[in-house]
């Protein structure tokens, strides 16, 4: 099992718990859609799975490592080496070119494969845009760079939070097709947060969050 | 992992060259002024050290022959009596087209001069015999070697840096030949360790005058205050520069919050990120510091001639006109640059260390994290209150400086709240929608501009404060010189007998002869110089009294009262109506107090009859001579011819005044230059703030543009906004500057020197300063305004696209 989430609870100070007794599992190469209404805790669960945030109780195990036992450096190592993230807001580094952004995560983890990067770049339609800066790209292009950056590092787990939320219908379909195709080729597992049933139906499995619980 | 992080961090600066340039210039300017001042101070101190070693400065008591040279026989007599005195002969010496100074010291009696010790212990040791016996040796700095090499008639030259520039040091025997003054001695230096039971000097050499270091103007004290003044300015400029650094680093950090978050999300540990940012800032500080050192080196070189002239006048120490690159200076400058940058970045680094991984990125979060103007104002008020309380509860120079620091920093912290108050008021009174928007927009921009405006406030207040002090000082000093130096000529006779002869000769040839006679007494507050004066209209009409009883001059002339100088009055807390105990059996009522700038010791004036009665036998060799100014030169020459007096025995009042004024003007040339430079830096701070805030301006102006204002109108409003904010700051700086001037004049000056200067106001100077400020603000706003004017509409539309 690549990702195991067991009885996890998360609450923010002064607020009702966002997640209560949530359990979920994801195997190598498997894709899972996490759906739910706004405020249901989808993004929070994704952040917990990506070691971006800490949970109150329960346990999350990623590739055999229990996240509760990791300090800040251990979590950072995990994010660098095994996980990749695609955000709704793209979160590219604005001062780096497209080419530099694409290679960035792989270089951080010391796993830059130039041939793979070049192939990715071509497949994502970014080959001619390497010298541009993110601000000069459309939303769809920026999200393709974000996906490329994530997959260039050949992560075991790709976490995507509403990756097409900021895109129009055509761009959304195009980006999703590419992402799913590349994820399957690389053998990475995918946990994708979406509120779109249509997108969720294209993944292997689907889990629905409501009121902080998996239903 | 480090390489991509470095790449990501550095990429920000590649994309924000103006921001990087701003940061580097801020660090460079801060370091430059501070380092320049330190270089000047270091050169001056090195000069003092060299000069002190030449027995040329009043560190020891000296014996002078009033109006002439000391005969060799007298020197021998004193040595035989056991007095450890050293003979010094000095005078100007012409070599080709240059005038050098020759100092001949009796090296047999005092071989401990550094230049001599150096020659005796150097790589080619020289025996004292070789130095003393014919042809002897001369010691001078290496730069004089080519000049002196053309004169084979001179003794062999020993090159040394242990003597001041433009000076030849040698044995007194050699100096006699060079100066053609056989058997003559300029002065005798009394060495500090004297054997016990010596016969009194007054018996052995009654014709010589013992001059104590305290009798002259305490030049060391003045020179120290001059250096303190320079250092304070250097520190102020450094602080203003750090405002730029603080603002720029803060914005750069805010703009990179998204990047930091992404880096952390991608697996860069926080501790590593902080270390990398610290390394980045240190590297930038080193580059900026190096640029600052280069700038500072040239700045010090440009300012040094004026400083050298000042210190020559104040201290009598020859000072070299070029800066020497000292490793300590370079190291200290770079350390200041790095330390200052890290200090100015402290708040940003703290925020970075507390940056939540999942916090919303962007400038808004950064801005909301800023301290509110009201809270800042509370800190400011507390600082002012602390400063005031320190001054009220404590006393002395330290309390004065605490008050100054509290007032300046406190006022700077109060500024944003005060400006917000004014802008809200203007906004409420505004009629048109555009005017309302302009005032509201200015208020909204305050958080981003407040640091630059604080820097401007400090620079302006210092400018007004120091300017008012200097101009008040100048006005008072000129008036005082006119009052004190009323006699057209000042004469020093060789001895009392010649003095009496000259006075007799002068009587029918002048309007008045005013004896200047004094004795040194002791008072509980220190040395007290008592002067006897004759009753003459010169004193009644001109003497600079700052407090007096009715019929003051009649009472002094009648021997019923005494006048004292301000220093004694303040030190002993004795004022008009009190009694001054001059001797155990002699006290007089104080009828008046007079100002006496530049003199650290106490003085008292009594009628000549009283003086003769209580201290008979005081020397009577010095006189002030009143005559028609047109005939003064003729009379001076007649005196020299008739009594065979050396040129320096008869001095023109105009020459003394001119010399005094020159020293004064030179003293403040550097201050004025630093004043203008500090103002320039604060102008630059506004420019950098406006440029760095540029990205935040578009969302503000785009809707107004969309609603119907042209880009040209918006550009003009940008210019107006900057000028209005600078004008408001200048208005607030005026009272602050005047309070600063008052503290400098009424507290710092009194504590440091013992005299208080009257404060004069110079509204014309304020108008000039305001005009300069508005010009600086307009120039600073010109670049963002031009950018706005030329901004393609597509860029403005992008704002709406991003907002959506």
From TrEMBL, chain A:
It holds the Pfam family ABC_tran. The keyword Chloroplast does not apply. One of its GO terms (molecular function) is ATP hydrolysis activity. Residues 3-215 form the ABC transporter domain. One of its GO terms (cellular component) is plasma membrane. It comes from the Bacteria. The keyword Nucleus does not apply. Keywords: ATP-binding, Nucleotide-binding, Transport. This is ABC transporter ATP-binding protein. It comes from Ruegeria marisrubri. The lineage of its organism: Bacteria, Pseudomonadati, Pseudomonadota, Alphaproteobacteria, Rhodobacterales.
From TrEMBL, chain B:
It comes from the Bacteria. Its main location: membrane. The keyword Aminoacyl-tRNA synthetase does not apply. The chain crosses the membrane at residues 20-37, 230-252, 272-304, 324-344, 376-394, 400-426, 446-466, 673-694, 723-748, 768-788. InterPro entries: ABC3_permease_C, Membrane_comp_ABC_pdt. Residues 232-356, 675-793 form the ABC3 transporter permease C-terminal domain. It is a multi-pass membrane protein. It is found in: Cell membrane. GO terms for cellular component: plasma membrane. Keywords: Cell membrane, Membrane, Transmembrane, Transmembrane helix. It holds the Pfam family FtsX. This is ABC transporter permease. It comes from Ruegeria marisrubri.
């Amino acid at each position: 099992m690549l990702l195991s989430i067991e009885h996890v609870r998360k609450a923010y100070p002064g607020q009702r718990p966002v997640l209560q007794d949530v359990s979920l599992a994801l195997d190598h190469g498997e894709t899972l859609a996490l759906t739910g209404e706004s405020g249901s805790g989808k993004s929070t669960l994704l952040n917990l799975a990506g070691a971006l945030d800490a949970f109150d109780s329960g346990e999350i195990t990623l590739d055999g490592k229990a996240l509760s036992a990791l300090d800040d450096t251990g979590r950072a190592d995990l994010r660098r080496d095994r996980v990749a993230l695609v955000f709704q807001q793209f979160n590219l580094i604005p001062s780096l070119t497209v080419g530099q952004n694409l290679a960035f995560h792989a270089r951080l983890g010391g796993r830059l494969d130039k041939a793979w990067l070049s192939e990715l770049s071509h497949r994502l339609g970014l080959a001619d845009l390497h010298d541009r800066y993110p601000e000069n790209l459309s939303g769809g292009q920026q999200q393709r760079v974000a996906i490329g950056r994530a997959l260039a590092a050949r992560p075991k787990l790709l976490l995507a939070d509403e990756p097409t939320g900021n895109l129009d219908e055509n761009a959304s379909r195009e980006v999703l097709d590419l992402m799913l195709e590349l994820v399957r080729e690389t053998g990475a597992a995918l946990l994708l947060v979406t509120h779109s049933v249509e997108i969720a139906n294209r993944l292997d499995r689907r889990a629905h969050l409501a009121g902080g619980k998996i239903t | 992992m480090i390489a991509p992080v470095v790449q990501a961090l550095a990429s920000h600066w590649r994309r924000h060259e103006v921001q990087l340039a701003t940061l580097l210039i801020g660090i460079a300017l801060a370091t430059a002024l501070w380092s320049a001042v330190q270089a000047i101070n270091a050169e001056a101190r090195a000069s003092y050290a060299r000069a002190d070693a030449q027995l040329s400065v009043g560190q020891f008591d000296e014996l002078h022959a009033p109006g002439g040279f000391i005969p060799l026989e007298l020197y021998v007599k004193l040595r035989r009596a056991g007095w450890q005195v050293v003979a010094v002969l000095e005078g100007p010496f012409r070599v080709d087209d240059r005038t050098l100074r020759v100092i001949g010291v009796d090296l047999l009696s005092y071989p401990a001069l550094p230049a001599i010790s150096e020659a005796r212990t150097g790589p080619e040791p020289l025996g004292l015999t070789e130095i003393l016996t014919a042809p002897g040796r001369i010691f001078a700095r290496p730069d004089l070697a080519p000049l002196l090499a053309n004169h084979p008639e001179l003794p062999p030259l020993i090159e040394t840096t242990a003597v001041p520039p433009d000076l030849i040091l040698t044995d007194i025997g050699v100096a006699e030949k060079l100066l053609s003054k056989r058997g003559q001695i300029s002065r005798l230096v009394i060495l500090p360790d004297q054997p016990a039971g010596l016969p009194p000097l007054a018996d052995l050499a009654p014709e010589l005058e013992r001059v104590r270091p305290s009798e002259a103007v305490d030049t060391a004290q003045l020179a120290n205050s001059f250096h303190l003044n320079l250092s304070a300015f250097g520190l102020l400029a450094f602080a203003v520069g750090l405002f730029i650094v603080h603002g720029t680093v803060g914005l750069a950090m805010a703009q990179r919050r998204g990047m930091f978050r992404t880096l952390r999300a991608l697996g860069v540990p926080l501790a590593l990120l902080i270390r990398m940012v610290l390394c980045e800032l240190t590297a930038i500080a080193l580059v900026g510091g190096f640029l600052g050192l280069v700038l500072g080196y040239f700045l010090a070189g440009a300012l040094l001639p004026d400083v050298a002239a000042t210190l020559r006048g104040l201290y009598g120490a020859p000072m070299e006109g070029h800066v020497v690159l000292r490793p300590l200076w370079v190291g200290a400058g770079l350390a200041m640059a790095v330390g200052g940058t890290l200090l100015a970045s402290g708040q940003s680094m703290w925020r970075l260390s507390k940056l939540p991984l999942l916090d919303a990125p962007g400038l808004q979060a950064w801005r909301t994290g800023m301290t509110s103007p009201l809270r800042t104002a509370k800190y400011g008020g507390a600082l002012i209150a602390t400063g005031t309380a320190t001054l009220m509860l404590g006393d002395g120079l330290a309390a004065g400086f605490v008050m100054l620091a509290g007032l300046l920093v406190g006022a700077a912290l109060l500024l944003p709240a005060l400006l917000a108050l004014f802008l809200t008021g203007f906004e409420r009174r505004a009629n048109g929608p555009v005017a309302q928007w302009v005032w509201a927009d200015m208020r909204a921009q305050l958080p981003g501009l407040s640091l630059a405006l604080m820097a401007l406030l400090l620079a302006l207040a210092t400018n007004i404060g120091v300017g008012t002090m200097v101009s008040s000082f100048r006005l008072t000093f000129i008036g005082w010189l006119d009052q004190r130096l009323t006699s057209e000529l000042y004469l020093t006779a060789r001895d009392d007998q010649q003095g009496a002869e000259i006075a007799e000769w002068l009587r029918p040839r002048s309007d008045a002869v005013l004896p200047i006679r004094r004795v040194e007494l002791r008072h509980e507050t220190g040395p007290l110089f008592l002067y006897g004066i004759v009753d003459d209209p010169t004193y009644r009409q001109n003497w600079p009294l700052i407090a007096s009883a009715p019929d003051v001059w009649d009472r002094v002339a009648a021997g019923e009262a005494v006048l004292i100088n301000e220093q004694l009055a303040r030190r002993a807390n004795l004022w008009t109506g009190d009694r001054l105990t001059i001797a155990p059996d002699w006290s007089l009522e104080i009828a008046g107090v007079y100002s006496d700038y530049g003199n650290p010791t106490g003085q008292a004036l009594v009628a000549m009859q009283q003086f003769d009665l209580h201290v008979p036998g005081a020397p009577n060799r010095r006189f002030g001579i009143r005559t028609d100014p047109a005939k003064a030169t003729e009379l001076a020459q007649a005196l020299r011819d008739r009594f065979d007096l050396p040129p320096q025995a008869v001095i023109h009042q105009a020459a003394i005044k001119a010399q005094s004024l020159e020293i004064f003007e030179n003293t403040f040339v550097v201050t004025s230059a630093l004043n203008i430079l500090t103002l320039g830096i604060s102008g630059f701070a506004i420019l950098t703030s406006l440029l760095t805030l540029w990205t935040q301006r578009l969302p503000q102006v785009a809707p107004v543009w969309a609603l119907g204002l042209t880009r040209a109108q918006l550009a003009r409003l940008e210019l107006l906004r900057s000028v209005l904010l600078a004008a408001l700051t200048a208005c607030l700086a005026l009272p602050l500057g005047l309070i600063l001037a008052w503290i400098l004049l009424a507290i710092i000056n009194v504590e440091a020197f013992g005299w208080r200067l009257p404060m004069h106001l110079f509204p014309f100077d304020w108008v000039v300063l305001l005009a300069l400020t508005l010009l600086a603000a307009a120039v600073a706003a010109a670049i963002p305004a031009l950018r706005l004017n030329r901004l393609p509409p597509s860029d403005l539309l992008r704002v709406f696209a991003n907002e959506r």
